[in-house]
TrEMBL record:
N(1)-(5-phospho-beta-D-ribosyl)glycinamide binds at residues 12-14. It comes from Brachybacterium nesterenkovii. GO terms for cellular component: cytosol. Residues 1-16 form the signal peptide. This is Phosphoribosylglycinamide formyltransferase. (6R)-10-formyltetrahydrofolate binds at residues 64, 89-92, 106. Keywords: Purine biosynthesis, Signal, Transferase. The active site is at residue 108. Residues 4-181 form the Formyl transferase N-terminal domain. GO terms for molecular function: phosphoribosylglycinamide formyltransferase activity.
Length: 207
């Protein structure tokens, strides 16, 4: 199975979905480690599944560049072929990007390029959109600017709060994320090439 490392900062519901999918016999990917930038509650899902965890906290390093290097080292030590940001609330620096070219994806709770950044659900509600959703994208040096790999729409209800809307987004998001990782792992099984194809992969609906 394709070795996958998941990066989290929060509750880890997307991580939990990936762990459940990876536990199915014959799954094309395996979660070989989970790395967080804070002692995230979601790390419990990894511990429960017997998956190694690491915390690389910004506060433990003299500056951002040293943290970027430590994060890249922690991920590289787990030897993944695919890195999945699942609620990881920090920008990815050059060391990790360079170590894993065409191999880092992110899930985001909005229909990019609308509402990038760390308050996507709040921003969408504040803007008054009637439809929002979730996106899985390739990670580049920008803030949620990478190539879109998959998207799903979610209706905004009149009485939605940030919490209720985010919960409905997460329900479709985790299913979509598992679909994308499964599709990439299936494709990668056939070759040693980069996990993310160089050509735009227009498939908006993962298998
Ligand atoms: C997810 O909705 C993810 O898209 C979002 O954080 C949530 C994490 O939930 N990420 C971002 O907003 C990144 N900018 P989880 O910890 O329950 O998986």
């Amino acid at each position: 199975p394709l070795p996958v490392v998941v990066l989290i900062s929060g509750t880890g519901s997307n991580l939990a979905a990936l762990l459940r999918a990876a536990a199915v016999p014959g799954a094309p990917f395996e979660v070989v480690g989970v790395v967080a930038d804070v002692p995230a509650p979601g790390l419990e899902h990894a511990r429960g599944a017997g998956v190694p965890t690491a915390v690389v906290a910004m506060a433990d390093f003299p500056d951002r560049a040293a943290w970027d290097r430590a994060l890249a080292d922690a991920v590289a030590a787990l030897a993944p072929r695919l890195v999945v940001l699942a609620g990881f609330m920090r920008l990815i620096g050059a060391p990790l990007l360079r170590a894993f070219p065409a191999a880092i994806i992110n899930t985001h709770p909005a229909l990019l390029p609308s509402f990038p950044g760390s308050h996507a659900v709040r921003d969408a509600l504040a803007h008054g959109v009637k439809v929002t959703g979730a996106s899985v994208i390739e990670v580049d040096e920008g803030v949620d600017t990478g190539r879109i790999l998959a998207q799903r729409a979610v209706d905004v209800l009149d009485d939605d709060t940030e919490e209720t809307l985010h919960e409905r987004i997460k329900a479709v998001e985790r299913e979509m994320l598992v679909g994308v990782v499964t599709r990439l792992a299936d494709a990668a099984a056939a070759s040693d090439a980069a996990v993310l194809p160089a050509d735009p992969a227009p498939s908006a609906t993962p298998a």
